[in-house]
Structures are given as structure tokens and as C-alpha cells.
Design goal:
It is a single chain. By secondary structure, the chain is of the alpha/beta class. 25% of the residues lie in helices and 21% in strands. The protein has helices spanning 31-45, 79-91, 112-122, 223-226, 240-253, 255-262, 267-270; strands at residues 9-11, 14-16, 20-25, 51-57, 69-73, 97-102, 105-107, 127-130, 144-148, 164-166, 172-174, 187-190, 204-206, 210-212. The strands form 4 sheets. It has a 7-stranded mixed beta sheet with strand order 5-4-3-6-9-8-12, sandwiched between helices. Strands 7-14-13 form a 3-stranded antiparallel beta sheet. The chain is globular and about 50 Å long.
Length: 275
């Protein structure tokens, strides 16, 4: 399929592009917000050329720009199917770097690319992804999944959620990243770096590089409390749906201000602590 991906600059005698950003959209009434916000934050925070492609997982393409769409699934398929489609798409297009993101995820620092590439190269790591320890997970999660060059062809990249991994409680977990739990020597872990935490798992800032709203296109629930009751002593899980609506409303009023507050960029949050 001709996707119209542009050739940006030559490398090592053949055409090699700088950065491919890929995002998956599932059925949600909030897609308009995520789409325009994701594109804006990418444009405002990504230096250098990049290509942006989206996969529509069983949704009407009319609300999205045609040039952004790499593929449409006729029916809503499992998340792993969409990720695996994009993995094969990435493998068939030569780029120096690849970034997979959920629709409710985007970069939040104008230096994210240069700093992340430096850290990966300095530590001889091939990819970066959140380790959602706030959700008790200790495997790379593809909400923000950054891969360097040829490592995109590694057979160890696997989004099969039938593969189990142990979490911090020693319980077996199935998720779209659990099949890559053994990649710790290749992964630069992006850990939650929120200065302000409005929720145990949602509204996450990872290493001050990416924002991930969490449950942006599905019911607002997380296994840390629904399955394990880990936060029952301080978080009332019966309020989760109401909290989901309130957090999205607060985000949607002013995404930049909301993210800046989570990152501690509001002076009033930090001035009393800097002596």
C-alpha cells in the first residue's frame, strides 16, 4: 500500500528518514480532543522532521486528515492487533527512530527527542517505554514506545497479550507489553515523574518526556485497585467513573496548563521548596 511517507534525508547510501510517529485510535467520543491535542503537542515539542501516521481501529475516518491515516480496521480489533499491524508497517519503512503512542499520549518537553536519544545511546539501550510501576507493572508499556533504528526488526518486540509476566506483587499479568518483560537489558525505563498526582495511575508524566492520560478511549478503571485493591486504604474505587469524567474535563479545559501543573511548572508549586 502506498502510504505517501516522505523521504526526508539520505543516510549511509540509501534513503533513511528521521522519525516515524504512530498512534492508534479506537472508538471514543473523545477522539476529537485526543487527535487535535496529540498533533499540537507533537508539533510544538518535536524538533526536526517527522512523519505522523495513525491507525483507525474500527472508527469512521471522516474526522481525521486523510494524509495522517496509514490504515483503517473495518471493525474494532484488539489493541494487540493494531500494535502488531503498526509494527509490521514500521518494519517496512526505514527510519532512524520509531515512536508508538496511544491516542491519549504525547510528548510534553521540547527537548524530549534529543535528550531521550542521548540517554539511550549513552546507556547502550535500544528502546524506551514507561514501566508503569504505579500500576504494579514491571514491563515496557506501549503507550509511549520509542525504538532506535534497526532494533525495530528484533523478534523480541512482541505485543502478544497472551504472554504472562509477573508484577510487583508476584502475580501473573497479561498485557500488550507483558511479552517483553525479558527485555530489561535493552530498555531505558520511563518512570512516572509527576510533581502533582491527581490519580493513582491516570494523568501520568513519564520522565518529563510524555503525558499519558490513561483509559482515554475506554472505561476509566485500572487493575491496581479493581483487581488487587492495592489503594483501598486511600482511594475509593467506587468513585472512579466520576473521577474519570472530572479529570478529562479538567484536562480538556486547558491541556497545556493541566500538563504544566502535573510537571511542577507552576511557580507556586515549587517556590516554597527551593531554598
Amino acid at each position: 500500500m502506498d502510504t505517501g511517507v516522505s523521504k526526508l534525508h539520505p543516510t549511509s547510501g540509501h534513503d533513511m528518514k528521521h522519525l516515524l510517529i504512530m498512534s492508534i485510535y479506537a472508538p471514543s467520543e473523545r477522539n476529537e480532543t485526543w487527535y487535535k491535542t496529540q498533533k499540537r503537542f507533537i508539533a510544538n515539542n518535536t524538533r526536526g522532521p517527522y512523519d505522523y501516521r495513525i491507525l483507525l481501529n474500527g472508527i469512521d475516518p471522516s474526522s481525521f486528515k486523510k494524509e495522517d491515516i496509514a490504515h483503517c480496521f473495518d471493525k474494532n480489533s484488539q489493541h494487540k492487533a493494531a500494535l502488531n499491524w503498526f509494527l509490521e508497517y514500521a518494519r517496512s519503512h526505514d527510519y532512524e527512530n520509531y515512536l508508538f503512542m496511544d491516542s491519549d499520549c504525547f510528548p510534553v518537553s521540547p527537548d524530549w527527542f534529543d535528550n531521550l536519544v542521548y540517554q539511550l545511546d549513552n546507556m547502550n539501550r535500544k528502546l524506551a517505554a514507561p514501566y508503569r510501576t504505579e500500576n504494579l507493572d514491571i514491563f515496557p508499556h506501549p503507550c509511549a514506545f520509542f525504538v532506535r533504528g534497526k532494533f525495530i526488526h528484533s523478534p523480541n518486540l512482541n505485543f502478544d497479550n497472551s504472554i504472562k509476566a509477573l508484577n510487583l506483587l508476584g502475580s501473573e499479568i497479561n498485557d500488550v507489553g507483558s511479552g517483553m518483560a525479558s527485555l530489561s537489558n535493552d530498555v531505558f525505563p520511563l518512570l512516572r515523574s509527576n510533581v502533582v498526582n491527581p490519580h493513582p495511575v491516570a494523568c501520568a508524566i513519564y520522565s518529563h518526556y510524555f503525558y499519558h492520560h490513561g483509559s482515554g478511549s475506554r472505561d476509566f478503571n485500572f487493575r491496581i485497585y479493581n483487581k488487587f485493591g492495592y489503594t483501598d486504604h486511600w482511594y475509593r474505587r467506587e468513585n472512579q467513573l466520576q473521577h474519570g469524567d472530572l479529570l478529562f474535563s479538567a484536562f480538556n479545559q486547558n491541556p497545556e496548563a493541566f500538563v504544566n501543573r502535573l510537571m511542577g511548572k507552576d511557580e507556586w508549586l515549587i517556590k516554597d521548596y527551593l531554598l
